[in-house]
Amino acid sequence: MPYISEFYGITIRMYYDEHNPPHFHAYYQGKRGTFDLNGQFLKGSLNNKTALALIKQWAKEKNFELVENWQHIEEGILLNKIRPLD
What we know:
The protein has helices at residues 49-61, 63-75, and strands at residues 3-7, 10-13, 23-28, 31-36, 41-44. It is globular, with a radius of gyration of 12 Å. It is an alpha+beta fold and 86 residues long. The mean pLDDT is 95. Helices cover 30% and strands 29% of the residues. The longest helix has 13 residues, at 49-61. It has a five-stranded antiparallel sheet with strand order 1-2-3-4-5, with helices on one face.
């Protein structure tokens, strides 16, 4: 389960055996959520409003890198780490 970023106690992961549509997983305080590459919450138990807002902001700022990592998944290439929020 490679993590690609960590910030403010939030861990972001992408998995190699994923399915479409493109997405990532976020973990915070024992809760998890699945998000599209624009940071839109899709499903899960992560319901902290601050964490959700930070994840969305991060995904919007790092969208190019997220799309690039999704392409790496499809090609079986190692994922890149993505910088956290500043």
